[in-house]
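Morning run. Coffee first, then this:
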Amino acid sequence: MVDFLLSIVGLASVGGAIYVFFFRFIGQNGHWMWDGIIAVVLAIVFCICALMLFLRHVNKEEEIHITQ
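And here it is:
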């Protein structure tokens, strides 16, 4: 369940970062500094979620039975 939540949060944050960067940060709306900060923070949240997702599966051994 935690893996599913990390994936959803990660995908939502990368989607939000792409939206903010391409549609708000690139455009001339006058709030370029805050939009850039929001895009970077969302990208960092994505990286943290991806790192936590991959680190949860380190050192997990699969049981191999003799009969297999």
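The mean pLDDT is 85. Good start to the day.
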